[in-house]
Write a structure and sequence with these properties.
The complex is a heterodimer of chains A (251) and B (248). Chain A is built from 10 helices and 10 strands. Chain A is α/β, with parallel strands linked by helices and 251 residues long. The two termini of chain B are 37 Å apart. Classes of the chains: A alpha/beta (251), B mainly alpha (248).
């Protein structure tokens, strides 16, 4: 479980996050949604530790990321997996080498065991046949799946996804969403997904945090979101014709 | 204002070097990267080093013979001067200026692209010291290969000088050989090695710094690449004066 308490983040004079409080439970897909520029990427980066919060706490099962010493911080990072918006695969390495990278860096296993584990992860995302290819030889959706395989290679407790469906067609997005959801349940991870894809929200949104101009505006799940009376949230969700019509049909 | 900015940049460079020069997390991975960088930065530069040195050696020989050599000078002057120029300045300093363009822009654009495509963030999230993993093998790999490149440059320059003798008949082989062997001071070779190793550090660390600190997109990566070449060239020229004074 990850808990965020009274989190503030400013860049010089500009306050980007303002008093964020939220709990992200394990075994569930937790979504952070909001308009572009609302601060959701900054929030995710503060949770992951790529940005240091101006004030507040980020608790990983009770361990505060902000006050951790270097050694604790190092150990915690090994419990994290992250999928970036651009997949962030190492282009000088093959797909298999990409997935093996965290194992090569941190695992004490033999080479054969590391290869076996990497192949298991690739098989889990149905990409075993592409293991000898380079990232630029595979499609965007496949790159995201490789990123998922790399993120789960060390069997992390916490999985973070920054707009995993960005640049993907709706069908591939669905595959990625289902994969992330299945992996979250299978490995009982705490997963936080940063997205503005409404299909993801309606598909896998078990715990949704809506950020508006740097503050927490609403929190709930996919069933509650359709019937919310929050105006700002509604104007965000029902900006899409499709969802407006779905709501009208439901009513 | 400019001074403030320069001091701040130098401070950030020192902090990055502090992170770079720490013990690698996995020696196995470090050596893998180290060998790869020696090949990419050093071995892949042999061609351009041989080519440029060959022609510069030939041109120096022709220029000295036609413009400096005169009847009242000993016959070995052309060969002697060619050797001294190659040993003292061209193969160590000027060759490093050329490599600052080739290797420096390569490093800055490679690391800069990794930064803007979030590959460095990915390393950090995994708990890898990205500066140590990416920069240290490049710095040490280039510092290891540079003395070999200097050797190749020296011998290629001499080969160029001999080519003017054999093909162009600018000077006799005997006179050239006499000049190349005349009053040889071994220290000049060591001086070239010492200077080139220092320059290798400047090229790789400065270029890596520019690449690592890129913010933005492809335009910024291009700017970082250009800035890295300009800065490392200026630093090479400046430190060449100091090192020459110190070592001579």
């Amino acid at each position: 479980m990850i808990e965020v308490k009274s989190l503030y983040k400013s860049f010089e004079d500009k306050e980007v996050l303002n008093n964020i409080n939220s709990v992200f439970e394990n075994g569930k897909t937790n979504l952070i949604i909001g308009q572009s520029g609302s601060g959701k990427t900054v929030l995710l980066k503060c949770i992951v530790g790529l940005f240091r919060p101006t004030s507040g706490e980020v608790l990983y099962d009770g361990r505060d990321l902000v006050t951790m010493n270097k050694q604790e911080w190092k150990m915690l990072r090994r419990e994290m997996g992250m999928i970036f918006q651009s997949a962030a695969l190492f282009d000088s390495m093959t797909v298999l080498e990409n997935v093996m990278f965290p194992l090569d860096m941190f695992s004490q296993d033999s080479y054969a065991e590391r290869v076996k584990r990497a192949q298991f992860c690739l098989d889990r995302v149905n990409l075993l046949e592409a293991q000898q290819k380079y990232p630029d030889e595979i499609s965007g959706g496949m790159q995201k799946r490789v990123a998922i395989a790399r993120a789960i290679a060390l069997n992390p407790k916490y999985l973070f996804c920054d707009e995993p469906n960005s640049g993907l067609d709706p069908k591939t997005s669905l595959v990625i969403d289902e994969l992330i959801h299945d992996i979250t349940v299978e490995f009982n991870m705490t997963t936080i997904i940063n997205t503005h894809d409404m299909n993801s929200v309606m598909g896998i949104g078990e715990n949704i945090l809506y950020i508006y101009e740097g503050h927490k505006e609403w929190q709930g799940n996919k069933d509650q979101i359709m019937n919310s009376t929050n105006e700002r949230l509604n104007s965000f969700i029902f900006a899409s014709d499709l969802f407006r019509k779905v709501k009208e049909a439901n009513q | 204002m400019l001074l403030d900015k320069s001091v701040a940049t130098f401070g950030r460079y020192l902090m990055l070097m502090g992170r770079t020069f720490s013990r690698p997390e996995r020696m196995r991975m470090f050596f893998k990267q180290y060998i790869k960088e020696m090949s990419q930065l050093g071995v892949d530069s042999i061609g351009i080093v041989l080519l440029i040195s060959f022609f510069i050696g030939a041109v120096i020989c022709i220029q000295i013979k036609l413009n400096i050599q005169s009847p009242w000078m000993p016959k070995f002057v052309t060969g002697y001067t060619t050797r001294e120029i190659m040993l003292l300045e061209f193969s160590s300093s000027i060759m490093c200026l050329i490599l600052a363009g080739k290797v420096g822009s390569n490093i800055a654009s490679e690391i800069g692209t990794m930064r803007v495509t979030q590959q460095i963030d990915a390393l950090e999230v995994m708990g890898v010291n990205s500066a140590n993993y990416l920069i240290l093998p490049k710095v040490l790999g280039m510092m290891t290969m540079m003395p070999f490149l200097v050797c190749f440059s020296i011998f290629s320059g001499f080969a160029g000088a001999y080519a003017t003798s054999v093909i162009g008949h600018v000077i006799t082989i005997e006179d050239l050989t006499l000049g190349l062997q005349h009053d040889f001071n071994e220290w000049y070779v060591w001086m070239g090695f010492i200077k080139s190793i220092f320059f290798a550090f400047v090229i790789t660390s400065v270029s890596a710094f520019y690449g690592y600190t890129v913010e933005g997109g492809s335009v910024e990566v291009g700017k970082a690449s250009t800035n890295s070449v300009v800065s490392s060239s200026v630093l090479i020229l400046f430190s060449d004066v100091l090192l020459t004074q110190l070592l001579s």
